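#struct-pred
JK: can someone run the complex with 6-O-phosphono-alpha-D-glucopyranose? inputs below
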Amino acid sequence: MRFGNNGSNRSHISSVKTVRSVLTDTRTHRTHRTHRIRQTRPSLVAMCGIVGYAGQRPAIDVVVGALRRLEYRGYDSAGVALVGRAGTLSTMKRAGKLAVLDEALARSPLPEAGTGIGHTRWATHGAPTDPNAHPHLDESGTVAVIHNGIIENFAVLRRELEDSGVSMASETDTEVVAHLLARSLSDGADLAQAMRQVVGRLHGAFTLVAVRAGEPGRVVAARRNSPLVVGLGEGENFLASDVSAFMDYTRTALEVGDDTVVDLTADQVVLTDPAGRPVPRREFTVDWDLEAAEKGGHEYFMLKEIAEQPKAVADTLLGRLGPDGRLVLDEMRLSESEIRDIDKVVITACGTAFHAGLVAKYAIEHWTRIPCEVEMASEFRYRDPIIDRQTLVVAISQSGETMDTLMALRHAREQGARVLAICNTNGSTIPRESDAVLYTRAGLEIAVASTKAFLTQLVACYLVALYLGQVRGTQWGDEVAANVAALSDLPAKVDRVLETMQPVRELAKDYAAASSVLFLGRHVGYPTALEGALKLKEIAYMHAEGFPAGELKHGPIALVEAGVPVFVVVPSPRGRGSLHDKVVSNIQEVRARGALTVVIAEEGDDAVVPYADHLVRIPASPTLLQPVLATVPLQVFAAEMAALRGFDVDQPRNLAKSVTVE
Ligand code: G6P
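RT: done, structure tokens with the ligand placed:
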């Protein structure tokens, strides 16, 4: 059951109070409440970090600490609202990173409180200004709301409210919720009822969290197609966009299904459906290592996460091969006969996860002989893909919340396809809505640019390919075991690559001023090249392109001029026929045109030596598995370039880690 639109378009606003009886952040309101802001274009807010707390600790410490953990989700503004034990509501919000809010709170601390909500914002439209930052209040200042997502019909609601005399303080879609909640409350609803009534009128995707003056100890939330999870503590409870926010306090979490309202106090958490009926609860344990949330001596999370890759790969392989030699997935709601009936695999994902999917295609087709397509999730449903009950759709997502991937998954299920999720986040939406799940065990990844999650996605893709091959009999147990053994060698090999990265860091110094960097590869080297280029774009803000090396001559070679750095991922000379030699020819082609070549090649591959301006060695491995090793120098190069060029390696401009809008 979804929250319906009850059609009641009552436009009366009962008792619109103009007196702000509560303690609020006066700077914001003095500047902006006094004149009505004209709505020129929607200010849509998405991919934000959300947190709520009720308990005995100082709520400000819990909320700001949790926001720090969530800042990777969005970082253009931040704010908090607290309800003190006497019921006083106080708020503070600032444009800019969390540090700006921190300073403001240090200068003018908010009164003590045991209940609070907090928000870090990533705006898709509209300026990240103080008034657009969350929380948003109703006119009387008694209800504070934070929001992640988009309220698609907010313009209609806003007009309705304005026609009734409500004055808006921000350009956001979120603010309408504060006013609508206030209206329901003044009509006699309690906070949870009001939340149900309001979300029944909203279209779009959202997580909303609200507190109310005069109701200390209570936080109410609702979600539709946007992440929200509950943390269950002893005499305290938490709400957050993801579990990293409350990992410091509790490892017990509660899933929150779509179209659910959460009514939370320090002692109890009530989940209800849109009609107010209790919904089934599913608890899970968070096994992420707390150290993952700290930089552990590294300058950036990204560098730490690159360094953690051997462990992440090893953890992802751990226990996946059952005692009888059969591969074990985490959640399997598909029978072996259903798997045998599959006649096509379609992989869908975004960004880095899409590149893992491209690698998976080579492995799946080679090991299982099942045709495999890979589609960017944002395009998937718009091309009316041909899928049915015999199609296995594999959705790959680190966060498990990427809206494009979720919508592709839902479209696939509507067409009857089976969906297998490869995901790093327990309790997230994508695995919950899938028929089978293989969790990558990268642990918490904080840097926006994905590194260890990517390597574990590759490993998970290999495991899925082997699993399919095993069930369908295209690979015998001993072949699977040999491949699993080759996979088991990877952690130590990744370690070896990491030990030899100093020359790659030095190389970045030579190229920090380059205007463009090209990446070439064939076979699985092609997605590796794409990933190398993506990393550089994401964090070093450089023009970078990845090409299939063979495609070079059909256009991209025109980009090659004297001094252009070109990375070439060279396949194993022991592998597939002429693949290696063809790539060596491609290196010569770009070099002949003045490119500076950075060649990533297997140890012992001497054929490349004459054509490499810089040679990066990686350990020998089966060709299909090579991306796990060849990607590492590309990650290190990108991180070093970003740092040298003076950019924030972990929080690149304009990006967010978890993209919960389409
Ligand atoms: C965003 C991030 C990318 C990430 C992509 C997919 O665009 O900036 O780094 O690869 O989302 O994320 P997911 O969580 O679905 O793997």
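RT: quick notes.
Residues 452-471 form the longest helix (20 residues).
The CA atoms of residues 20 and 384 lie 52 Å apart.
JK: thanks, will look after standup
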